[in-house]
């Protein structure tokens, strides 16, 4: 089994040009011990319950705390140890046999020594090692113009985060590096903020991080500029060595984290949605939960900050509702909409502060104006679950949707009645994640149940060009580059193929296999079907940093809000 469960993006220019390799120092080792203690204490609590014949998942539903228990070492008796020593003669194991003389310099007379290594005629070392290091450094270089795609991938029960580089000019897509994850990832969110010092960590590492939600109740934050990292920079959840409750509370999640959203205006704020029916607001400056909301009566599957109104947050859940709330007013939501089915995803319109879109389990896409109580429109976009969709950040009215029917569709919402522009199957299986690349381009990224990542330039589709011919971004791009080629391929680079429709090429790039990068810049001899991709948009641009956090209410009231939008979605509907 191989699947892509979530996709996110790093805006151009935010990644380090030369990522550093992870080094295990003494300070880092102490920090890792502190992070490990969090999981160890929880495991000890579960073990204590199991020994008593209880259930670790339900034993604390009454709200009682579980005290962390010290592990009791199991040791053999003294007699057993003595018997083993006698049986294998371990008492005399290190003693030399009689008459045997050994020494490390017994054959010293046969050795020749040169004070300078290069004087030894048998040593022919050159600068090969230095040249190899320099070549590796160049291969790892990330240019300011590179598009960075983050994809959560699970293959054969092993999960990892893949960091892709997409070079638009050369239509090149490959995996730059990856990070091994301890649990199945459900959602990703890029964070342009230094997380708090936790368990010995410092907040001086850089501002290119990703928050990851999994089936575990903790949120892990990883540094994307560090290669081969063993542990996350920060873990948001119950503190190590403290009492941990299984029942939902105001301090940390107690079930899977299904959605994440970083506030685009106050970078130290992160909202999370969980299967424990709560939404939590985290202050990354301190690494603690500042507020907890309980607006939903079932699992909360999606959360999204408004890109225009700094304190508005939209949430959706399995209680079949989309709720708009003000983070400064935790007791009462501002607006609530019944959508008739489980909410899969949410997205604000990047061009209107009042429009929110909702996708549902029965394949319907809703548009609501938060100033009104009724939906602006609704369309039956897919025959089954509408698991992912994205609103174009550069072409107003262009929406891409993807469903578990394996179809990816493009829609025009310029008029009051949305119309479908095209529908394609890109052989990625059930579509779990979609996203428009940040910036002024119109590239879509998609991933699904086949474990494949695809990138498609929607401008190359004739239906899109016709519907949005007056769009300035399209006109500028056509004048500069014209129409590009379609590429498909596997895991590190792809073969190139032309896709023709109405005498126009429709281009897609894919990464599937692990054989290494390869490219073909010439016209492809391999013909493919014309296809288009839907994607989940994550328009995350450089945001001005808000200062350190204050008390719970001041945390939001005093924040310096400005920026653009970003959203994350749930990929798995239920545990197991």
TrEMBL record:
Ranges: WD repeats: 250-292, 379-421, 431-466
SUPFAM superfamilies, alphabetized: WD40 repeat-like (SSF50978)
Annotated region (Disordered), positions in chain: 476-576
Top-level taxonomic group: Eukaryota
Keyword Cell cycle included in the entry's annotation: no
Stretches with biased composition (Basic and acidic residues): 505-517, 566-576
Residue spans of biased composition, Polar residues class: 481-490
Compositional bias (Acidic residues): 518-542, 550-565
Cited InterPro entries: PWP1, WD40/YVTN_repeat-like_dom_sf, WD40_PAC1, WD40_repeat_CS, WD40_repeat_dom_sf, WD40_rpt
Keyword annotations from UniProtKB, A to Z: Phosphoprotein, Repeat, WD repeat
Pfam families: WD40 (PF00400)
A GO cellular component annotation in the UniProt record: nucleus
Gene Ontology biological-process entries: rRNA processing
Keyword Repeat: yes
Name used for this protein in its record: Uncharacterized protein
């Amino acid at each position: 089994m191989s699947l892509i469960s979530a996709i996110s993006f790093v805006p151009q220019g935010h990644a380090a040009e030369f990522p550093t390799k992870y080094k295990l120092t003494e300070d880092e080792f102490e920090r890792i011990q502190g992070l490990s203690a969090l999981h160890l204490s929880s495991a000890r609590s579960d073990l204590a319950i199991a020994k008593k014949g209880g259930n670790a998942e339900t034993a604390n539903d009454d709200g009682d705390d579980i005290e962390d228990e010290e592990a009791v070492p199991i040791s053999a008796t003294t007699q057993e140890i003595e018997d083993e020593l006698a049986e294998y003669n371990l008492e005399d194991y290190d003693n030399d046999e009689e008459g045997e003389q050994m020494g490390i310099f017994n054959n010293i007379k046969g050795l020749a020594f040169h004070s300078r290594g290069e004087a030894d005629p048998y040593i022919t070392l050159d600068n090969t090692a230095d040249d190899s290091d320099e070549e590796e450094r160049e291969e790892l270089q990330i240019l300011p113009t590179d598009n960075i795609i983050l994809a959560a991938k699970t293959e054969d029960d092993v999960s990892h985060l893949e960091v892709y580089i997409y070079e638009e000019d050369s239509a090149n897509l490959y995996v730059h590096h990856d990070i091994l994850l301890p649990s199945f990832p459900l959602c990703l969110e890029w964070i342009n903020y230094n997380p708090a010092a936790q368990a010995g960590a410092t907040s001086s590492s850089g501002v290119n991080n990703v928050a990851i939600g999994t089936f575990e109740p903790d949120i892990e934050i990883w540094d994307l500029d560090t290669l081969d990292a063993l542990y996350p920079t920060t873990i948001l959840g119950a503190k190590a060595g403290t009492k941990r409750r299984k029942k939902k509370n105001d301090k940390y999640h107690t079930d899977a984290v299904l959605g994440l959203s970083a506030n685009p205006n106050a970078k130290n704020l992160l909202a999370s949605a969980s299967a424990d029916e709560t939404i939590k607001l985290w202050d990354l400056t301190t690494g603690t939960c500042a507020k907890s909301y309980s607006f939903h009566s079932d699992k909360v599957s999606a959360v999204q900050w408004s890109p225009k109104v700094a304190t508005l947050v939209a949430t959706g859940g399995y209680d079949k509702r989309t709720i708009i709330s003000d983070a400064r007013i935790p007791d009462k939501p501002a607006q609530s909409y019944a959508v008739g089915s489980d909410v899969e995803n949410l997205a604000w319109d990047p061009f209107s502060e009042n429009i929110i879109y909702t996708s549902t389990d029965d394949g319907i896409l809703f548009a609501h104006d938060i100033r009104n109580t009724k939906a602006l429109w609704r369309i039956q976009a897919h025959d089954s679950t509408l698991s992912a969709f994205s609103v174009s950040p550069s072409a107003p009215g262009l929406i891409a949707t993807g469903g578990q029917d394996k179809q990816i569709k493009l829609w025009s919402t310029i008029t009051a009645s949305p119309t479908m522009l095209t529908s394609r199957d890109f052989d990625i299986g059930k579509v779990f994640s979609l996203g428009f690349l940040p910036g002024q381009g119109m590239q879509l990224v998609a991933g699904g149940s086949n474990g494949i990542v695809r990138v498609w330039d929607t401008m190359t589709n004739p239906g899109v060009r016709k519907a949005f011919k007056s769009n300035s971004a399209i006109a500028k791009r056509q004048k500069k580059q014209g129409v590009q080629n379609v590429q498909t391929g596997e895991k590190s680079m792809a073969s190139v193929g032309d896709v023709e429709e109405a005498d126009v090429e429709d281009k897609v790039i894919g990464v599937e296999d692990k054989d290494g990068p390869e490219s073909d810049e010439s016209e492809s001899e391999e013909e493919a079907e014309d296809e288009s991709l839907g994607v989940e948009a994550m328009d995350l641009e450089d945001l001005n940093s808000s200062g350190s956090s204050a008390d719970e209410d001041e945390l939001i009231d005093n924040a310096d809000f400005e920026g653009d939008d970003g959203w994350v979605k749930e990929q798995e509907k239920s545990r197991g």
